[in-house]
# Entry
Amino acid sequence: MWNNYRRLSSPSFRTKVFLSSFICIGIPVILSLSLYTYLTRDAVEEQALLNAQKELSLVEENVSRILEDLMNVSNFVQIDSELNTILKSKSKDGANDFSNQTYEEYMEDSLVRKTIENITLLGEKSYVTILLENGKYYTNYAISDYDPQQIFQEDWFNQLQQLSGYQSLWIGVEPTNFSSDLHKHPYQLSVARTLRDTNQRIYGYVVVTLLETKIRQILKNQNETEKLYLIDHENKILSTKTSEEINELLPFSSLVMNQDEAKIINWQDLDYLISTKTLSFNGWGLVSIIPYKNATSNITSIFSSVFLLLSLSFLLFFLILAYLMNRITKPLIHLDRVVKQVQKGDLTVRANVTSNDEIGKFSISLNEMIERVNRMIDAVKYTQVRKRQAELAMLQAQINPHFLFNVLNSIRMKILKFGDKDSANMIQSLSTLLRWTIDTRKDVIPFQEELNLVKDYVNLMNMRQKNKVQLIIDTNESTHTILVPRFILQPLIENSIIHGLSQNEGIITLEAKMNKDKFYISVKDNGSGMSPSELALLKQSLNQPTNQKRAKKGFSSIGISNVFERLQLYYQNRLSLHIDSIEGEGTITTIEVTLEGDADVQSDAS
# Structure
């Protein structure tokens, strides 16, 4: 650690040159590129939002034009005085009975039908139904496709009767009523209104219907990556590019804005540009959603090209600088290698820098120093070797386990003093494990101390690996004083971490309980588990001789075999060990021991 700190605090000459160049030139360039990226990102976002609003406005104009045509047809029927006079008169007659019609009545009916045909000539084709209270009707379609009197049975008819004045009822998407169009055009949109006399009494109804595919054709003509929806007040889809979504709730309805605007949202872990537009005359809305990357691809490509050019120029400059620095500092690097070889004890190496500058003179002086050292070493070689051996033996004798623990504790206290609690805890856990590993006086220990060893071990493993393991311990106090062989849990926990969880995140549950004279210990993980064949091989290996077990690899390794052997030696025929595993769900190892009274429990005196 000290050597690493010295290297960081005392960089080489070449490093200093590079750092100086980077500080003077690199940092301003990087700051400029970062500022450029930040500013262009905002500009790209703003331009994308403006483009989305403009494109949706164009779609809104086309959709509004079609829906306004429906409104204009219904308005015409409502406000045309001649047509209203005829309809009011017809509403007082009987139903559609053409057998006893007078010539004048025939001409009036023809005028109504011709008027309906004329007002639907312009714009998109629409179906007009004028239905009077007495059941008489006028249409611009064949009644074999649809019986107009079925309007009285529609779900929305009651809402239509509750309208007042010139209000209109916009009817959402419905299955197409006209049998001849049903196959190619499965859905329709309609607007309906009441016909009233001067006393505001309803004498008839007018319904104008448009096939939904007319709207869908407009929505299909937009960007392939863009999804466009026509929705009602409840965010139900009235029209979109595919008929499968019609009548469904807008999938991202919670993110739809109430006002007309465009913004960026995160949906299904991806960024999207969403914009909305409300139709002024009926409150329906248009929603556009497009992946943000696609919406900004053209603008981003321009900024990216400029950024790439600047980055390549900056990289080229540093490559040239690196080449020049390498040529200039190459003799210094060579001398550094020679000095390091000498530090390692290789006094046969020589510097071969032949330049006439200061570096060349230093090379000659270094070679002369090495020659002088070689002569001195030859004179005292035998004595120095013996002396070093004696010093090494004395030093080794001084470093006993207690000295090692005291040093580790001193290091822990010094680290703790600087506030690094994690490193201090790691050293404390390591010290505890080393103490129990070296101490050979106790073959068995209380189960509580074995749990503490496992906690220290998992603490160390979590500090040395990136993915943390959660250890859950569920024990009864009655189990804490039971004597068990040392290190029977650590190998099981190690197997769960390394083989079960593959050193990834996971949960290991350690449970211990007493049931009469039975002592149960279980270690469970939620790792990858084992296949039935692997589990069978593991169980088979537990009954093999020790020398064959050590040749095995996999989940068992040597650890679980060692635990099983030591438990058998201590408990003999009072022990049973079970291993259960489900592939993809985890493994559980259960130890069951029959206790023999106080012999297996720590006494109060101990």
User: Anything to note?
Assistant: The chain has 16 helices and 17 strands. Confidence is low (pLDDT under 50) at residues 388-400, 549-557. The two ends are 42 Å apart (CA to CA).
